[in-house]
Amino acid sequence: MAPVGPRSGDAIFANMERVNAELFTLTYGATVRQLLTDLEEVDEVNKQLDQMGYNIGIRLVDEFLAKSNVSRCVDFKETAEVIAKVGFKMFLGVTASVTNWDADGTCCSIVLEDNPLVDFVELPDTCQGLYYCNILSGVIRGALEMVSNTSSFAQPSIPSFLWDVSLKTEVTWIRDVLRGDDAYELQVKLVKQVPEEYPYKDDE
Q1: Residue 148's CATH number
Q2: How many distinct structural domains can be found in the chain?
Q3: Which domain of life is it from (predicted)?
Q4: Is residue 11 part of a domain?
Q5: Is residue 7 part of a domain?
Q6: In whole angstroms, how far apart are CA 130 and each of 15, 24, 35, 36, 57?
Q7: Per residue in 1-57, pLDDT tens?
Q8: How far, in Å, CA of 169 to CA of 93, rounded?
Q9: φ and ψ at 60, to 5 degrees?
Q10: E-assigned strands of the chain?
């Protein structure tokens, strides 16, 4: 039997069970507001949103692999394209593009054409310095630590400890419409590839 081909982000998104978009947006907004109340410092809120996203990202990988049938990524460039064209469409219903690659192919920008997280949102002057959608940077960072350009995306049944390499990345906001820019742009930089350590030794 021929292998099942990869599914587009549009096809997956159209068939996924999902919450009401407006409810999702309002719930996220309430979460950010509560963090601002509890933590008071904007920098701490940015860190907390990134950590929340990281925790989500490492858990989304299994669902992504199971539903996308994406084939093996051969390098970091292809990995970034999969995130933008399949991942963002699959989970947020938006299209993203990958631009501004450096000469080494280890740093690029992901530009969102739309951002449902910011519907109904205006940042007050007291929130200067807040990266309202910093949860997205954490999601990307967490997901990339769980899959790699040497991992077989076509075999979602393989547990994470059998994957060869973990991709350590830095993900930062370059442009943010809520901060007066003309687009939502995330810079994704590959810092290093870390070989995974097996949790056990085969003594046989």
Answers
A1: 3.30.1380.20
A2: 1
A3: Eukaryota
A4: no
A5: no
A6: 34, 20, 11, 10, 21
A7: 333 344 444 554 455 454 456 777 888 889 999 999 999 899 999 999 999 999 999
A8: 24
A9: -75, -20
A10: 96-99, 107-112, 165-175, 184-195
